């Protein structure tokens, strides 16, 4: 559905469309409005088809969301085909779950009234301005998405019907007061402890590890020394941002350019439109009714009154058919042409047909275009000229880079010299973790391709971003496999030294623990009112302190392993939580309720899946052998 967004849409409308995508029907329920297809479906759920087109659209939406959330990190992940396959599978699982819930809601006979749909539309934030429903915004968004009001309302009906089942399920969850109270008491509890750290470092000087011991460990733990495939790249980079820094533009040149291109610095003309929309689904009847209304207007009928009584666009009808201010290129072409061909304010167009139905359009007002003064746009002009000159240079250099790196495929030195750049080099990195400068799925794909990796050739020019390109070649390559003993010998020896030193530290800690239990004097560090989430202490000590049993007549004593050593922990006292009030309890109840509700939803989907007939058809590949 989103492919119908017109190229001319931008600004607030375009951003609102992104908000609209968040609605649940962005992932499901679309295919039924797009017609049938002969292609193999992505899945069938109790006979209902999830099309490959629907899956692809949902997958691309999820990729875009992940890319926005993770940034450059996603580019690295996207270089791993198995990661993308798992991402696609998770999207398909969600689509299947959505269909199962819809089917269950329909089987239960759940229904949504027209009034509920209208309420949902008017309360949707994407259709609001300053917290109030904005009919002009609503109409504009529907136009950009390419929806007829009836189709959009039907999709909302299905979405709300499914939500009835989900909200009923999750709304049945509740949290007992004692549950929240108990959790609050556990989380707010503090403990008085003493502890003593036995550092393993002093013991390392007494540990000797032989090469034979290291080799024995290596042979017994081969799986620990498996290294991934690694690659190091040389690359030449071209970036228009770097080129633009060296471009100089005089004020005289900027003013001359401004005078020659004044039309580019005009605010576009805007027109305030109203319309009467006839869209009942019967094309012939709709056309006839629209033409009859147009005759009434020609005979002096009031436009606002006719719109209120007859327009299928119920929201604008309440305002006499008035929509919003539009620039050229925002609405559908037929609507756009009719609106901007009206010569006079108050003028009425002939009957116009669009994908939404039959319109009669009225011009309510006009905002003429205005030209900005040079002083107000001087820096904008200078920046534009810099970018234009840098862009011309970039294209020339990019072509040179392309030609030379292709003609001399076994080095980048010549190409770098021709474009005035340097050959840069990365360190070794695995396929799924490229350096930030080359964190791009296409770069990783090219680097591990046969021509570049096996044949030692330069890659093609790869676009990292608009006007930002790179050519890469392999500098070093290491196959995946078990690392040689010689390469890991020093690490193994250091590990064995640390292990034996830790053992010595553990023995000393246990001896100290015995002394404490026997009542002997042991110098300890004291910590009072230790909280469960203390940040200024080793988390292993904190965790151990809250695992230990409440002390009786004598303190509770135990030891705990640290990263380098051990600690003796003495629990002196458990303090009850303080400051538990209604605000704390309400927050805990809300969190627990959310967790329970999510578990209920997952259980519902699992139950529906267990009873459903779900198929995942695949295209059978046939191979024709040439005789």
UniProtKB/TrEMBL annotation:
Organism: Shewanella submarina
Positions of the PpiC domain: 268-365
Subcellular location: Cell inner membrane
Pfam family, one: SurA_N_3
Entry protein name: Periplasmic chaperone PpiD
Source organism superkingdom: Bacteria
Keywords tagged on the record: Cell inner membrane, Cell membrane, Chaperone, Isomerase, Membrane, Rotamase, Transmembrane, Transmembrane helix
Transmembrane segment boundaries: 12-34
Membrane topology: Single-pass type II membrane protein
InterPro entries named among the record's database cross-references: PPIase_dom_sf, PPIase_PpiC, PpiD_chaperone, Trigger_fact/SurA_dom_sf
Similarity comment: Belongs to the PpiD chaperone family.
């Amino acid at each position: 559905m989103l492919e119908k967004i017109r190229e001319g849409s931008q600004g607030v409308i375009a951003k609102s469309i992104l908000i609209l995508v968040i609605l649940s029907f962005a992932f499901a329920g679309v295919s039924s409005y797009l017609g049938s297809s002969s292609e193999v479906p992505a899945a069938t759920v109790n006979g209902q088809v999830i099309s490959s087109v629907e899956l692809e659209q949902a997958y691309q939406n999820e990729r875009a969301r992940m890319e926005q959330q993770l940034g450059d990190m996603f580019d690295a992940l996207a270089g791993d085909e198995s990661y993308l396959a798992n991402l696609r599978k998770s999207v398909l699982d969600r689509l299947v779950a959505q269909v199962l819930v819809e089917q269950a809601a329909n089987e239960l006979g759940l229904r949504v009234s027209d009034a509920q749909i209208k309420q949902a539309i008017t309360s949707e934030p994407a259709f609001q301005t300053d917290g109030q429903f904005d009919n002009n915004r609503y109409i504009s968004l529907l136009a950009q998405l390419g929806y007829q009001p009836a189709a959009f309302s039907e999709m909302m009906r299905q979405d709300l019907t499914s939500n009835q089942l989900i909200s009923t399920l999750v709304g049945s969850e509740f949290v007992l007061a004692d549950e929240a109270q108990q959790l609050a008491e556990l989380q707010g509890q503090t403990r008085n402890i003493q502890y003593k750290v036995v550092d393993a470092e002093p013991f390392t000087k007494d540990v000797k590890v032989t090469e034979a011991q290291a080799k024995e460990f290596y042979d017994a733990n081969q799986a620990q020394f498996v290294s991934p495939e690694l690659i190091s790249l040389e690359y030449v980079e071209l970036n228009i941002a770097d080129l633009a820094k060296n471009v100089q533009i005089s004020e005289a040149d900027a003013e001359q350019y401004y005078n020659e291109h004044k039309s580019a610095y005009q605010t576009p003309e805007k027109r305030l439109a109203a319309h009467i929309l006839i869209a009942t689904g019967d094309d012939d009847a709709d056309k006839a009714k629209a033409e009859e209304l147009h005759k009434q207007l020609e005979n002096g009928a009031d436009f606002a009154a006719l719109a209120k009584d007859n327009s299928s666009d119920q929201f604008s009808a309440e305002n006499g058919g008035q929509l919003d201010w539009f620039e050229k290129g925002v609405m559908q072409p037929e609507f756009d042409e009719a609106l901007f061909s009206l010569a006079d304010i108050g003028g009425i167009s002939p009957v116009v047909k669009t994908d939404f139905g039959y319109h009669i359009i009225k011009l309510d007002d006009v905002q003429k275009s205005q030209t900005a003064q040079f002083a107000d746009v001087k820096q904008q002009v200078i920046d534009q000229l810099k970018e234009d000159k840098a862009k011309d240079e970039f294209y020339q250099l990019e072509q040179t880079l392309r030609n030379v790196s292709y003609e001399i495929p076994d080095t980048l030195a010549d190409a770098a010299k021709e474009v005035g750049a340097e050959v840069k080099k990365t360190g070794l990195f695995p396929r799924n973790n490229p350096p930030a400068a080359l964190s791009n799925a296409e770069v990783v794909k090219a680097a591990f391709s046969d021509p570049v990796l096996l044949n030692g050739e330069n890659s093609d020019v790869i676009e990292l971003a608009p006007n930002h390109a790179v050519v890469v070649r392999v500098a070093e390559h290491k196959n995946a496999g078990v690392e040689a003993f010689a390469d890991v010998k020093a690490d193994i020896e250091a590990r064995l030294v640390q292990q034996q030193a830790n053992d010595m530290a553990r023995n000393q800690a246990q001896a100290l623990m015995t002394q404490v239990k026997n009542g002997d004097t042991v110098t300890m560090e004291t910590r009072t009112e230790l909280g469960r989430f203390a940040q200024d202490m080793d988390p292993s000590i904190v965790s151990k302190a809250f695992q230990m049993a409440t002390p009786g007549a004598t303190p509770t004593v135990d030891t705990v392993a640290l990263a380098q050593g051990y600690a003796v922990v003495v629990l002196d006292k458990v303090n009850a939580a303080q400051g538990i009030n209604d605000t704390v309890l309400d927050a805990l109840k809300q969190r627990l309720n959310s967790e329970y509700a999510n578990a209920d939803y997952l259980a519902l989907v699992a139950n529906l899946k267990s009873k459903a007939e779900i198929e995942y058809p695949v295209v059978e590949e046939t191979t024709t052998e040439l005789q």
